[in-house]
Specification:
Layout: H1 12-34, H2 45-57, H3 68-74, H4 76-88, H5 91-95, H6 100-133
Helix pairs in contact: 1-2, 1-4, 2-4, 2-6, 3-6, 4-6
């Protein structure tokens, strides 16, 4: 059994069980982000913001369901940041709010959170790649004949 602790999610079996859940969640987030279309009805804006916020929350290091690796690998962070930027810069959308500056501030905070999670995921991926490359290769000693 591959376990590194006694908590419910500190073993390989729990991780294997979570994999399809994380994949489904990542697909749902991608779907919501891709539905944003410029229109006077702001189609998909609220869903996309909720999806981006869910991605940010589920990419935190302490999150049980952690999408950081999937999001970094699949470009989901980039899509979320791009989508939030579109919404953040849509003056007509912001004008619909009672307090447009507060809406803009909330979107900017979400964008910064996503950027931070993307950077952390990139850093962790780079560190993992270095660890893999640094694994020493043991050479077999050649038998010496005397």
């Amino acid at each position: 059994m591959g376990a590194w602790g006694y908590e419910p999610f500190e073993n390989d079996a729990a991780g294997d069980w979570l994999d399809p859940i994380e994949n489904m969640l990542a697909k749902a987030i991608r779907s919501a982000l891709e539905t944003v279309k410029p229109s006077r009805h702001f189609d998909g804006y609220h869903e996309a913001v909720a999806a981006a916020a869910l991605l940010a929350e589920s990419s935190a290091l302490e999150s049980r369901i952690n999408l950081a690796y999937l999001a970094e690998k699949s470009g989901l962070f980039d899509l979320a940041i791009e989508t939030v930027c579109k919404i953040e810069n849509d003056a007509a959308y912001l004008a619909e709010w009672d307090k447009p500056n507060e809406a803009r501030t909330a979107l900017a905070s979400l964008r910064r959170s996503l950027v931070g999670h993307r950077r952390e995921a990139e850093r962790q991926a780079a560190a993992a790649a270095l660890r893999i490359r640094r694994v020493p290769v043991r050479k077999k000693k050649q038998a010496t004949t005397a």
